[in-house]
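Recall that a protein's primary structure is simply its ordered list of amino acids. Everything else, from secondary elements to tertiary packing, is in principle encoded there. The following example makes that idea concrete.
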Amino acid sequence: MTAWGVRTHVGRVRHGNEDSFFAAEGLWLVSDGMGGHAAGEVASKIVIDTFAPLARRGSLRAADLVAAVHTANEAVCRFGADHARARGLGATVTGVASVVVAGTRTWAILNVGDSRVYRLVGGALGRATIDHSETEELVLEGVISPEQARTHHARNVITRSLGQGQALQPDVWLLPCAPAERFLVCSDGLNSEVGDADIRAICLAEREPQAAADALVEAALAAGGRDNVTAIVVDAGSQG
């Protein structure tokens, strides 16, 4: 069985919230929009509206998620082409879905952009996604540390997003289900303000998923809240 909690906040600096999210049994997603002139919130809403019908299906496949990414990408590009003031808009999408592979229930982790999925199992927190960003490339090359990436001047440069007007390849990972696990799906407004060690501590301290989502967002706000921040906390299996 699963339980989840969700919190989103405009932050302490921005005037509008360009984050959108979806949370329903078997599908949890965050989309972080970009583009200004309200185009960012339009882009993220287009993405979420494209994915939402998947939750009504009795059984999902990983291929369904990939197809939805392509459909959403085309829709965002089309909106930008039709609205001059919105040209250049885009969005990330990341999340967790329950899918069936060879008759077995499995987790599918989806990502395009720099929003993230974390997975907590047995007290160990790990990132289940890789950021599509210039700073992530520098971290993987050993040029900077993950901690330095949080304040690096190129931290907002995304290398892959919906709305770029080209063929888009999403990342999809398949993970076997654990007896008890917690997922965190979040926009970069969380992890840019709160380090992984503090994210882990909060996820361990707050047993209820809604309380955990609230505490994570409050931590981001307390650290400065310079961006919109969204957190979905999903508990699967017995949490003991």
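The first helix runs from residue 39 to 51. Residues 150 and 191 are 8 Å apart (CA to CA).
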